[in-house]
From TrEMBL:
The keyword Magnesium does not apply. Belongs to the mitochondrial carrier (TC 2.A.29) family. Gene3D superfamilies: Mitochondrial carrier domain (1.50.40.10). This is Mitochondrial carrier. Solcar repeats lie at residues 22-116, 126-215. It is found in: Mitochondrion membrane. Keywords: Membrane, Mitochondrion, Repeat, Transmembrane, Transmembrane helix, Transport. The keyword Membrane applies. It comes from the Eukaryota. It is a multi-pass membrane protein. It holds the Pfam family Mito_carr. PANTHER family: SUCCINATE/FUMARATE MITOCHONDRIAL TRANSPORTER-RELATED, SUCCINATE_FUMARATE MITOCHONDRIAL TRANSPORTER.
Amino acid sequence: MAIRFTTFQFYKDLMIDKNGTPWKLNNLWAGLLAGVTEAVMVVTPMDVVKIRLQAQRHSMADPLDIPKYRNAAHCAYTIIREEGFGALYRGVGLTSLRQASNQAANFPTYHFLKGYLQRKQDINDLPGYQSAIIGCISGAMGPLVNNPIDIVKTRIQKTPNPEGLGGWARFKEVNGAILKNEGWRAFYKGVTPRVLRVAPGQAVTFAVYERVSKWLDTNSDTFKLTAAAK
């Protein structure tokens, strides 16, 4: 989230012409680029580790049934040792596409609804509950749009790639297998749990972000004076 909001604002600040006018659809483009940035910096390797840990099966009742991965750090170490560092970035293209489409839907929706409520109520700062509600709505947009991408990405990251297929070949292999064996409905498996996970998280995130951002802006002069005094 820190990377997402920081890079979103960074890219948005760049999208201004020489007259100081923001680009059209700047929230969409900044969100898209922020999604790609977070996917490359942290989401892809952590997704690979998370999925491997969740996918392994062992019996808690059998002391001899020892899981392959003991924890996240051990999982990352084992993947690098057995499959190479590049294995942590398996599915980076699809993860980037998923995160980019997530934020390209998330930020424009939030800022559109925020602007609408500000104009409707003639206020600058929305109450916290309103920020949470529109954050929840905007957070649901991503999973509804890109669940097929997430399904293919998860299948690619879940299993090793012994044939050493390239990214596009691997994508076609997994995509074709899903269509052949499970049908197109399989691309929307798990969409409800994703919405139930992501939407409330975005509600909390945006509500807290707006409150903390307002507090920092209000106290910025105090921070500057304190820093100057030191």
